[in-house]
């Protein structure tokens, strides 16, 4: 009888296991959707040609089958960027050996952040630019792109060094859909973001 | 029994002041506001871009240099984009409390400077 109860308990517990997996509900696709001829069109990051830290033209369509972690910053930013970069380094350390993940930091300061400044920045940060790219582009393109990533970026002469921007880190899937984000100024938010990223990787591969 | 309890209470009383970490709470607040955004809450800095705060990097053997560095900052280096913002608005007392906080946190120095020294040091800083 005792043994029977034990078996029942084990079977019952096994039954609970699927409930522990969070795969049941896929990550949402963020942003407004449109209906085109009866098909649903989700919000998609536009294909804009950017220039990376080695003066190479880069489009996110060149990504191939990867998920993207994106942020917006500038090298002389004295307000939130260093803390966001510290958290981006945590993400880098976790995913640098995972070829399915690419990180990309967009500079919003076209006055000072030339390709060579970005190159030096990446070098001083000590990261492999195959895994983490630093990109620039036409100011209008970058600001438009930030908008599409749901990151607010505004020029504001009263802000430190002339820009106000949010420290969000954005997760994009290989269809260029935004699937999640975290606040890069908040270590706990980034820790929770690890799970979001892992979930997308399980979903996609 | 009462004696024993009294002895325990006495010992506890001794422990309470020891729990207080340092007297520079204003310095700690100022650190959080003016320094931590770049040097991080724990003073660890950022890779090769922003130096970590240590006894050596802060240079307590020459506090006048540290005082003037905090006051004037470092202009933007056009090659790297890195800079240190000036802190023109800190009063003599605030600067003193900040330096003493840095001293006790990163170099275990109980008191690095006094306000009258800092006043002189600040007057001696080359302004730019």
Report what the structure shows.
The complex is a heterodimer of chains A (205) and B (128). Chain A is α+β, with helices and mostly antiparallel strands and 205 residues long. Helices cover 36% and strands 22% of the residues of chain A. A five-stranded mixed β-sheet of chain A has the order 7-6-5-10-11. In chain A, a hairpin with a 5-residue loop joins strand 3 (50-51) and strand 4 (57-58). Chain B is an all-alpha fold. Helices cover 56% and strands 0% of the residues of chain B. Chain A binds chain B through residues 74-76, 78-80, 82-83, 85-86, 89, 112-113, 116-117, 120-121, 123-126, 160, and chain B through 37-38, 40, 46-50, 76, 78-83, 85.
Q: What are the salient characteristics of this protein?
A:
heterodimer; A: 205 residues; alpha+beta; five-stranded mixed β-sheet; two-stranded antiparallel sheet; 11 strands; 36% helix; B: 128 residues; mainly alpha; 6 helices; 0% strand
Mind sketching the topology for me?
The complex is a heterodimer of chains A (about 200) and B (about 130).
Chain A: H1 2-20, E1 34-36, E2 39-41, E3 50-51, E4 57-58, E5 67-73, H2 81-95, E6 101-107, H3 115-125, E7 132-135, H4 139-148, E8 153-155, E9 163-165, E10 168-172, E11 178-183, H5 187-204
Parallel strand pairs in A: 5-6, 6-7
Antiparallel strand pairs in A: 1-2, 3-4, 5-10, 8-9, 10-11
Chain B: H1 2-19, H2 25-39, H3 55-58, H4 63-72, H5 92-106, H6 115-124
Helix pairs in contact in B: 2-5, 4-6, 5-6
